[in-house]
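Q: Please design a sequence for this.
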């Protein structure tokens, strides 16, 4: 990893903070900022936008699930990768973490090498997505996409529908997401409508881009309407 990445580590145990920070910063590409609780972490996020967050789950006052919910409610952090560290390793706890929108769940005690591998995987994956121009975290790009979508939808009566050149098989959930994207809804609104996480919606939108050969929501809607994939 040639570029430098910023990581925010949130844990109420000083020993864990010191050990994880020291281990990760052995890699010159990684810079770690620490916070002793979610409240302090939120204060840091007002001036620092990290590339990834590592958070404990069991913390006083505001736990990891509540902190993650706060992150996902803020447009600045809806796509920010989050790793949960916790002593709770039961399947139900991991499911709750993934449903809340975390990207990885590592039970304590853990091997530092495994944490580092997860961190680098998430960072390089995020970099690849950004280079593909998904625009998932670019608010201005999303806003422009929505403006174009709404303008395009207003001209549907002038559109001539043609059959798709190739059959595209969409799952029921992909079809639902596509229909809502065509209505001009944001990922957060789609997630609420379908009772799922924003991260899941992002994954479905990425699949739709791949299946239709499009690179933006505007192109996706135009393609879907032109080929009769949505109404």
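A: Design:
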């Amino acid at each position: 990893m040639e570029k430098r990445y910023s990581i925010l580590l949130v844990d109420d145990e000083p020993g864990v903070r010191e050990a994880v920070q020291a281990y990760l910063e052995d890699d010159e590409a990684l810079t770690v900022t620490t916070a002793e609780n979610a409240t302090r972490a939120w204060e840091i996020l007002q001036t620092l936008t990290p590339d990834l967050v590592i958070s404990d789950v069991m913390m006083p006052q505001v736990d990891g699930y509540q902190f993650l919910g706060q992150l996902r409610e803020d447009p600045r952090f809806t796509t920010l990768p989050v790793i949960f560290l916790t002593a709770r390793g039961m399947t139900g706890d991991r499911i709750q973490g993934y449903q809340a929108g975390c990207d990885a769940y590592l039970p304590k005690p853990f091997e530092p090498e495994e944490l580092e591998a997860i961190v680098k995987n998430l960072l390089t994956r995020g970099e690849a997505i950004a280079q593909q121009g998904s625009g998932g975290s670019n608010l201005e790009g999303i806003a422009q996409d929505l403006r174009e979508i709404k303008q395009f939808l207003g001209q549907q009566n002038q559109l001539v529908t043609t059959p798709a050149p190739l059959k595209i098989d969409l799952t029921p959930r992909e079809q639902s997401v596509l229909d809502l994207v065509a209505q001009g809804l944001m990922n957060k609104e789609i997630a609420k409508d379908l009772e799922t996480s924003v991260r899941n919606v992002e994954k479905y939108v990425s699949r739709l881009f791949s299946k239709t050969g499009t690179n933006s929501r505007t192109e996706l809607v135009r393609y879907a309407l032109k080929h009769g994939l949505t109404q």
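Q: Thanks. Anything notable?
A: Residues 133-137, 156-165 have pLDDT under 50 and may be disordered. The radius of gyration is 20 Å.
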